[in-house]
Amino acid sequence: MGYNRENFRRIRQEYETKYLDARAEAEARRGELHARFPEVAEIDAAMHELGVTLLRTAVGGGPDAQAKLAALREQNEALQAARAAFLTGKGYPADYSEVHYACEKCGDTGYVDTKMCDCMKRALTAAGFASSGLGHLLQTQSFENFSLDYYRRVPEQFAAMQRNYDILYRYAHEFTAGQCRNIALFGGTGLGKTHLSTAVARVVIERGYDVCYTTAIDLIGDYEFDRFKGGREDSADTLAHYADCDLLIIDDLGTEVVNQFTVSVIYNLINTRLNCGRSTMISTNHSPKELRERYWDRITSRIFGEYQVLVFSGTDVRAQKLRQ
Fold first, then answer.
1. pLDDT per residue over 68-82, tens digit each?
2. Where are the domains of the chain?
3. CA 225, CA 66: separation in Å to the nearest integer?
4. Could you give the CA distance from residue 181 to residue 270 in angstroms, rounded to a whole number?
5. pTM for the whole thing?
């Protein structure tokens, strides 16, 4: 898996803090009980001594060790029962001073044995949604709510869009970091390119990979700011994320101003990701012919040579929805 490094570092720190906080809060509750009820303090002291004796007996062994251990465990259970009865009699839960973890399965460590706990996977997935750049789109656009009905009027267009959907569905569910599978989506506005790109991102993030989504304009803006204005505090991290993430999605290629700098940025990023075996998805409102006319051969040769090209056709879905 390739969780975003910064997300992983932050979530791990959050788990460490939760774990320590839970234990500190339990200790504070224990101190409160000892201050209010000397009887509880006495029981806890007795249980502590009993625990030490249990350990010594278990380590020391001997012919009658098992019988002694059984008797000691019985005494311990009796003390626990007495403590619980005392607390409930005073209006406290029996486990009032126990450690209460947010996740009892992993004890707020994020791991069960050496396997990542489901709770940490959910936290990393949520963080992946937040850091992907797709924002609210991930909450509203998925494979499940993408409708092919808007393409049924023309059988050829419907067949092509069904094929595009199937290819992208398999791409998302079979995605593997380092496999370097690249896709370019061509077609006019409102034909579902962003919706299906978001659906791919959603599945890939849920499967534990680091996804970065950006528009071509925002991408170029980040490189321009870093190159000509000295960058921001997080500028280096942002540019590194474009190059290093498991899946980079560049939407609306061709909406940016085309000049020597912007073309160089796009070429270097595409080429770097190809050389490092990292997957990229690109979408554009231009046709393949228009893209060839707009960019250097070095860029278009890599896109048409290294990317699977999917052409979207039909009638603007947004316009169809407005007419309904």
1. 889 989 999 999 999
2. 5-112, 132-323
3. 73
4. 12
5. 0.76
CB atoms within 10 A of CB 190: 19
Return the number of other C-beta atoms located less than 10 Å from residue 107's C-beta. Answer: 18
- Residue 160's identity, in one-letter code, is A
Q: CATH for 132-323, among 3.10.20.30, 3.40.50.970, 3.40.50.300, 3.40.190.10? A: 3.40.50.300
Those residues whose C-beta lies under 8 Å from the C-beta of residue 116, and which sit 6 or more positions away, are 110
Closest by CA position to 261, among listed 291, 235, 222: 222
pLDDT tens track for 37-61 = 999 999 999 999 998 988 888 888 7
With contact defined as beta carbons under 8 Å apart, do 219 and 250 qualify? yes
Per the listing, tokens 């994020």 go with 110
Q: How far is CA 22 from CA 70, 138, 307, in A?
A: 32, 33, 50
Task: List Cβ neighbours of 15 (8 Å cut-off, separation of 6 or more).
Answer: 108, 109, 110, 120
